[in-house]
From TrEMBL:
The keyword Transferase does not apply. The lineage of its organism: Eukaryota, Metazoa, Spiralia, Gnathifera, Rotifera. This is Uncharacterized protein. The keyword Ion transport does not apply. It comes from the Eukaryota. It comes from Rotaria socialis. It holds the Pfam family LRR_6. InterPro entries: Leu-rich_rpt, LRR-containing_regulator, LRR_dom_sf. Keywords: Repeat.
Length: 252
């Protein structure tokens, strides 16, 4: 009888979320998983962590505006220790505190693949984030993002919508749109790194400088479809041209 009771108790403790599993299974583009605003909790992060371990194509994971706290962050951190493909993790608008950030930072001491970590709108104060960032000097990409954890990143809704409207086009014309360096970060992250269709990108007659050129160069290192990029009549100098030139040595 005692064994039966123990087995029943263990069964009751087992957690699953079939709706979440279906959402993951039905995602067509396996490189991006959007689970934002899905009322996900800490136990759901066990399922997400499983996906991080088995999906070798996943590069962008969007978990913003859920109910994830420190325990959920720990599940994600455990998966990040061995994951080598994820580049973008969006966790803003959750319930993660200092403990959860500590777990993530500890994992990111060895994980060098993740480039973007958004966590504004959680429960970490600037001073606490600064102390944690001090311990993360080995990760030059993530350390400043943790140090400025509550800084809301730059957005351009019009550009994002323009990118979405070109999602299935081989040519994207963003010429003469008054785009700046920060806009190139959006183009790099939301178009060049994820779009497997676009072959021609027109960016001439904008306000792109050396920083914007660097964002584009970083994306070109992994992009395998773009064959034409127009950047004339911008503000790119010698260093920006050098960034692009170095990227094109590996982009064939």
């Amino acid at each position: 009888m005692e064994t039966q009771i123990r087995n029943i108790t263990l069964e009751a403790l087992k957690y699953d979320n079939e709706k979440l599993r279906q959402l993951i299974a039905n995602t067509v583009d396996k490189s991006t998983l959007n689970l934002s605003s899905s009322e996900l909790k800490d136990r759901d992060m066990e399922i997400v962590a499983e996906e991080l371990e088995i999906n070798k194509s996943l590069t962008k994971l969007r978990l913003f505006t859920n109910q994830i706290s420190d325990i959920g962050a720990q599940h994600l951190a455990d998966a990040l220790r061995t994951n080598t493909t994820l580049t973008d993790l969006e966790l803003h608008g959750n319930l993660i505190g200092t403990g959860g950030l500590e777990h993530l930072a500890d994992a990111l001491r060895t994980n060098k693949t993740l480039n973007v970590l958004t966590m504004y709108g959680n429960k970490v104060k600037d001073q606490e984030a600064g102390f944690i960032a001090d311990k993360l000097k080995t990760n030059e990409k993530i350390e400043p993002q943790i140090r400025n954890i509550n800084e809301i990143p730059y957005t351009n809704p019009q550009l994002t919508q323009l990118i979405k409207s070109n999602i299935n086009s081989t040519g994207a014309n963003f010429a003469g749109k008054n785009l700046n360096d920060q806009d190139m970060k959006i183009v790099a992250n939301e178009l060049l790194q994820v779009n497997k269709v676009v072959t021609t990108l027109y960016l001439h007659a904008n306000q792109i400088g050396d920083v914007g050129a660097q964002f584009l160069a970083d994306a070109l290192r992994v992009n395998t479809t773009l064959t034409r990029l127009d950047l004339y009549t911008n503000q790119i100098g010698d260093s920006g041209a050098q960034y692009l030139g170095e990227a094109l040595k590996t982009n064939k």
